[in-house]
């Protein structure tokens, strides 16, 4: 694959993989610790509605998906705080309705012939310079939020009741985590697609959780592991001419299996 590095699209793919991996590592850690995996899955699939709207109105795909995903995140944050006993129903509803909206608006778009499967399973080799700027800015925002509010986020993640007693605005940070999760899902769609994005957010985190003793350590380590998995997956995809998103996830799953086979820790 060394000779392929001379091509711009390969360079973009590698940089995108690293940026998204570290964003997914940080946010994936928060998703797992706060038990938000199912919520993130609902947001991921509902974002297809934003893709359909962006296609129909001629907007940038990232913009449409981001607005729709953030809207879904805020709605789910409200529902989980005030309608918790029915949250599984609401997640399923938002999941299905979001995808249905996306499909309908793509159908209504005259003359649109781009393969929408790339958004379902990823298209990292088609990452543009504008996509890289978006990914870089998002990672910067995530790192800023974690650095500035780390203690509050840590308290909310592990004991929200105690955090509330200390005066921490639990609702704000809960909603903030979901919004950052939504934006991370959107950028990860470009790498592995919305069908596979949850695996990217959870597999590296599972390994990092076993090897680290703090939330900060888990975030860094899961980002590093995700980046390694992504680069190996890209090599595998390029070498055997396979779909990049699926290759990344299969490599991640295989290496998780190896880890479980040899790991004898906590």
Short description:
By secondary structure, the protein is mainly alpha-helical.
Q: Layout of SSEs?
A:
Layout: H1 8-33, H2 37-57, H3 61-82, H4 87-108, H5 117-121, H6 129-148, H7 150-158, H8 160-165, H9 170-192, H10 197-211, H11 215-240, H12 244-262
Helix pairs in contact: 1-6, 1-9, 1-10, 1-11, 2-3, 2-4, 2-9, 3-4, 3-9, 6-9, 10-11, 10-12, 11-12
Describe this structure as you would to a colleague.
80% of the residues lie in helices and 0% in strands. It is mainly alpha-helical and 266 residues long. It has one domain: ABC transporter involved in vitamin B12 uptake, BtuC. Helix 2 (37-57) runs antiparallel to helix 3 (61-82). The radius of gyration is 18 Å and the shape is globular. It starts with 7 loop residues before the first helix and ends with a helix. The mean pLDDT is 86.
Q: Helix segment count?
A: 12
The percent of residues in helical segments reads: over 70%
CATH class bucket? Mainly Alpha
Query: Rough shape?
Result: globular
Which sheet architecture does the biggest sheet show?
none
Gap between N and C termini, in Å?
37 Å
- Rg over alpha carbons: 18 Å
Mean pLDDT across every amino acid position: 86
From the 3D coordinates, which CATH architecture would you assign? Answer: Orthogonal Bundle
Low-pLDDT stretches: none
Structural class: mainly alpha
In total, the number of domains comes to 1
């Amino acid at each position: 694959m060394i000779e392929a590095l001379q091509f711009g699209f390969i360079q973009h793919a590698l940089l995108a993989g690293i940026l998204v991996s570290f964003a997914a590592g940080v946010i994936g850690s928060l998703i797992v610790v706060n038990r938000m995996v199912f919520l993130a899955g609902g947001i991921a699939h509902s974002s297809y509605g934003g893709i359909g709207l962006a296609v129909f109105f001629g907007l940038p795909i990232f913009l449409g998906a981001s607005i729709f995903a953030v809207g879904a995140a805020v709605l789910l944050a409200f529902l989980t705080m005030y309608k918790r006993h029915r949250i599984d129903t609401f997640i399923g509803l938002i999941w299905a309705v979001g995808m249905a909206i996306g499909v309908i608006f793509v159908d209504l778009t005259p003359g649109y012939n781009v393969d929408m499967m790339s958004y379902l399973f990823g298209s990292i080799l088609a990452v543009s310079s504008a996509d890289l700027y978006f990914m870089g800015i998002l990672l910067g925002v995530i790192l800023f939020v974690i650095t500035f509010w780390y203690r509050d986020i840590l308290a909310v993640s592990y004991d929200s009741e105690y955090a509330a007693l200390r005066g921490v605005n639990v609702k704000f940070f809960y909603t903030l985590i979901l919004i950052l999760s939504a934006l991370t899902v959107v950028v990860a769609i470009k790498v592995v697609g919305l069908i596979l994005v949850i695996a990217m957010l959870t597999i590296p985190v599972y390994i990092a959780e076993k090897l680290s003793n703090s939330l900060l350590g888990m975030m860094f380590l899961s980002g590093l592991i995700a980046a390694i998995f992504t680069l190996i997956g890209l090599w595998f995809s390029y070498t055997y001419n396979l779909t990049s998103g699926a290759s990344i996830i299969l490599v991640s799953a295989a290496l998780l299996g190896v880890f479980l086979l040899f790991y004898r820790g906590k």
